[in-house]
Design brief:
Layout (H helix, E strand, L loop, with lengths): L2 E6 L6 H10 L2 H9 L3 H22 L8 E3 L5 E3 L7 E6 L2 E6 L5 E7 L7 H5 L2 H8 L3 H22 L10 E5 L12 E5 L4 E2 L9 E5 L2 E5 L3 E8 L2 E7 L9 E3 L1 H11 L1
Parallel strand pairs: 1-14
Antiparallel strand pairs: 1-5, 2-3, 4-5, 6-13, 7-8, 8-9, 10-11, 12-13
Helix pairs in contact: 1-3, 2-3, 3-7
GO molecular function, one term: holo-[acyl-carrier-protein] synthase activity
Pfam families: AASDHPPT_N, ACPS
Protein name: 4'-phosphopantetheinyl transferase superfamily protein
Amino acid sequence: MITIQALQLPAVLPDAFWHSFLTFVSEERRAQAARFVHQADAYRSVLGEVLTRITLSELTGVPAKELSFSRNAYGKPCLVHNPHVPFNVSHSGDWIALIAGGTAEVGVDVEKIAPIDLQIAERFFSPQENAYLAAMPADQQNHTFYRLWTLKESYIKAIGTGLSLPLDSFAILPKGLGQGPADELCWQCTQTGHAELTGQNQSNSQSVHQAEGRNDRVMQHRFYSQPLDAQHMLAACASDGELPMNPEIVTLDQIYTRFVEGR
């Protein structure tokens, strides 16, 4: 079963929690945390690994501190001894998000929503996405930009190719350009000039599709898109299996309890 967990960062982490968590993460993570100028950046980095280790330990039965990680050629992390257990983590602003479980490729992205020059979309979005964004009312365009951005990031993180797949080479749009509240839309990914990749939150089918004289492989990627709060957008992607209807919001106290029980 695929799960999505979201942890809101505290303004201040209790010293007892912080020192315990620092002994729990990798030496590289501790060194990275020490280099950050802003404490919030250190919190995000360390707590992201803590949440990941605890969750993967619960899924695999391997003690959390004994888990070893590697990366593929494009930088996507995986477990060394349990590479079949998928996971992906993201953090931005006040939130950390983790997707894990099942057997599918998975990706997650969270972004803090801030005013942005929408011309950046012309560099990174497909023509179809730019047209969709431009058609939005002016007061919804910034929010829509972050929804599309997080969906695209969750997809490239799921397939694990990083930016070797240009962001403008595929489009993620509402299926059939359906109408209705954005939180309720079903999102579809089309890879321009290649396979058409479609996703539905609760669909389970895969097929091979013949289009324009090409044998295009169609994978039914599922997408989830919801704001975590007024200032943060969350998106998730899975190549198979059902995504949860909502993320599990976990608290720092819950994480610490799981940490104590699992170490």
